[in-house]
């Protein structure tokens, strides 16, 4: 996953994947730097392993039922030559249609299923007031 809101206030794993691919190319000064197809394993199973979550990061029997569905038919994703390149190069967080953790749908088609998003935004703004007032 991302480093969290403390590092860039973003929490957008798709954007982080794009940065990683482009930065690797820039740093190495080689267009093949990190091949886009290598980013998905880095952002999923390798990220889970780095966090000590061994039963995560893959869609496989015995692994936790965590999944994200991303629309690949949005204007910004066309043409799409496959999810391996579309996800790190052109997909946006607004293309996410559903997230699932441990088999429980948390977000689907613009609706948060387990939290009151308006209450969360209010509380977050209230907490931050104490630091900047």
Q: Explain this structure to me?
A:
- The chain has 133 residues and is of the alpha+beta class.
- The chain has six helices and four strands.
- A four-stranded antiparallel β-sheet has the order 1-2-3-4, with no helix packed on it.
- Strand 2 (96-101) and strand 3 form a beta hairpin.
- It starts with a helix and ends with a helix.
- The mean pLDDT is 88.
Total DSSP E strands: 4
Q: Note the beta-strand portion.
A: 5-15%
Radius of gyration: 17 Å
Low-confidence stretches: none
| Termini separation | 32 Å
Summarize the entry for a quick read:
The mean pLDDT is 88. The protein has helices spanning 5-8, 13-28, 39-43, 45-50, 83-89, 117-132; strands at residues 67-70, 96-101, 104-108, 111-112. 41% of the residues lie in helices and 13% in strands.
């Amino acid at each position: 996953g991302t480093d969290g809101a403390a590092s860039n206030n973003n929490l957008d794993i798709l954007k982080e994947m794009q940065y990683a691919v482009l930065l690797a190319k820039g740093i190495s000064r080689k267009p093949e730097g990190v091949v886009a197809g290598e980013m998905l394993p880095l952002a999923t199973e390798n990220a889970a392993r780095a966090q000590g979550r061994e039963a995560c990061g893959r869609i496989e029997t015995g692994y936790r039922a965590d999944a994200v569905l991303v629309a690949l038919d949005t204007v910004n994703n066309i043409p799409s030559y496959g999810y391996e390149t579309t996800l790190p190069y052109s997909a946006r967080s607004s293309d996410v249609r559903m997230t699932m953790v441990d088999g429980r749908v948390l977000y689907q088609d613009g609706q948060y299923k387990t939290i009151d998003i308006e209450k969360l935004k209010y509380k977050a703004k209230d907490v931050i007031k104490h630091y900047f007032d």
